């Protein structure tokens, strides 16, 4: 993996470039993707991690794995290990077969020094709570799974989620979740280092609400054609959000880019 970062002052710098063929250590990746010490004006730092093919597909046959790589998965694991909470949409939980986040010995000391628990919490965003609460994600996580929903969520599903051991967090006055309130509700629980892994609809909501601070985008050297979703879906924003390139890493033709909002809200 090599460092292709342009010479611009945009947050913590990526580690110095390493030679072709050498795999970056997890410590080097953790330094490259460290959360900013100052956070963001809204009390948390929300970053997204997504992968896209060269022709803009975020998935192939409904899953991201076919356009991913071993290096992409190392970065995926590093980003999780740095986060307090991983925010994910219900449909992605169903399609990708989400399991609880696990503790990783390689990051134990770093998490302890940052005042974090052994693993990030998973926060599932769902209006209907149409989820299988018998899955390990809800029944046997290392850290209790959160379910973000609206005040008008079906009461019977709320009770079932709570019986399974999940903590239900209301972040909206109607049936659905309001993105800004979700960020605030998680920050209010001390979960300020936030990571979303999508899917596209959820990421689109965060973009439209203006609360996304950083995008970690893997550009996969693949072409898929078809009609797969982009990394963000939903209604278009009135004015495109401008982000600045913070770093670029490369391995086997995959580009691991990191962009930060140029003018945080």
Automatic annotation (TrEMBL):
Stored Pfam families: RibD_C (PF01872)
Keyword NADP: yes
Keywords, in A-Z order: NADP, Oxidoreductase
InterPro entries with a match to the protein in the record: DHFR-like_dom_sf, RibDG_C, Riboflavin_Biosynth_HTPR
GO-annotated molecular function: 5-amino-6-(5-phosphoribosylamino)uracil reductase activity
Annotated ranges, domain Bacterial bifunctional deaminase-reductase C-terminal: 45-239
GO terms, biological process: riboflavin biosynthetic process
Pathway given in the UniProt record: Cofactor biosynthesis; riboflavin biosynthesis
Identification of the protein by name: Bacterial bifunctional deaminase-reductase C-terminal domain-containing protein
Organism whose genome encodes this protein: Streptomyces roseolilacinus
